[in-house]
Amino acid sequence: MFKRSLNRAVVHVKLSTVSPLLIRAGDTGLDPSQADLCAVRTHHGHFGETVYIPGSSLKGVVRSAAEALVRLDGNNNGRDGLGACDPLDHKTSCGGRQKRGDQATAAVYAAHCLACRTFGSTAMKGRISIRDLFPWPGDGRELDVEQRRNAAKANALEGRHGVAIDRIMGSVKIGPFDLEMVPAGVAFFGEIALENFQAWQLGMLASALDEFRQGFAQLGSTKSRGLGVVRPTIERIVYEQTAQAGEVPKGIGLLDSEAALRQYALKKDRDLPSAVGEVRGLSRRFVIEGESADKWLDSAITAMRDIS
Q1: pLDDT of the chain along its 308 residues, tens only?
Q2: Other C-beta atoms within 10 Å of 48: how many?
Q3: In sequence order, what are the residues at sequence separation of 6 or more whose Cβ sits closer than 8 angstroms to the Cβ of residue 172?
């Protein structure tokens, strides 16, 4: 399905911390002054060392929320292009059931559940990729005062002490140990890219992000201690489709041939809300912001409800 590019989008996301956030680093290194549970960091070419939200960390939680929304029942297990399988069960998952090289690409895609069609499996690339989020928009080179203040606040990490309580004695059994957290009231900025996707797949992403907005999903470690509450905001959507497809934005189910629709067993698709596009080379680009972006997401969520 990636041999041709029929449509694609970049969703610009702002993630605001409502409570402190801890995404743990893999190790603490050799510095004895480091906290026991350190926040993950990276080295940025312009800002130097900084905290960030790895795209893989966000994708895992987003996928988990999306799977819960479309999973039908325990017996379905994501078969027949419905629901969601257990991607960690290597025998019954979509990727585990597929043997690479034995089937055509279309047959592999058709045999995948809704979640794996969107986020991918060990046998197939997904439609969605989530990039790392940083505490500044863009590349960070041209920031106003407020944006620089936000970046500084994100890296002004706070500490918290934790203990493990003995269930019999009621006293401290392990600890105290130190946690290092990004404070509340900080914004992270990033992008979510989609390629050759149907409207319902954008709706699955929007529904999963809404789980964070409603407080049902949290991000990072020690969520039971109150950490990891975040609120996502879609700032804008940059959408492109082939110029020959016309001026109405569409999911790929309305852009490909009838033969391809049958081969890939694509779900029923729909037009996206009208927008003003601009031809750029072989593509037509639409920039969707504000209330228009909300209408797009609502339309996409409706498309997901129609097929799930």
Answers
A1: 667 889 999 999 999 999 999 988 766 554 555 666 778 889 888 888 999 999 999 999 999 999 998 885 454 556 666 788 888 888 888 888 876 555 678 888 988 999 999 999 988 899 999 999 999 998 777 888 999 999 999 999 988 766 566 576 665 666 666 788 899 999 999 999 999 999 999 999 999 999 999 999 999 888 888 889 999 999 999 999 999 888 999 999 998 888 888 888 898 898 999 888 999 988 999 999 989 999 999 999 999 888 86
A2: 9
A3: 163, 164, 165, 166
Residues near 53 by Cβ (< 8 Å), separated by ≥ 6?
15, 21, 23, 132, 133, 188, 190, 219
Phi and psi for 261 in degrees, rounded to 5? -60, -40
Nearest CA to 240 out of 79, 51, 9 is that of: 9
How far is residue 268's CA from residue 246's CA, in Å, rounded to a whole number? Answer: 19
Q: Which residues of 58-93 are buried (b: 16+ CB within 10 A; e: fewer)?
A: bbebbbbbbbebbbeeeeebbeebbbbbbbeeeeeb
Residue type, 246: G
Angle (CA) 190-22-164 rounded to 5° is 165
- pTM here is 0.88
Distance CA 303, CA 274 (A): 16
Rounded to whole angstroms, how far apart are CA atoms 1 and 252? 10
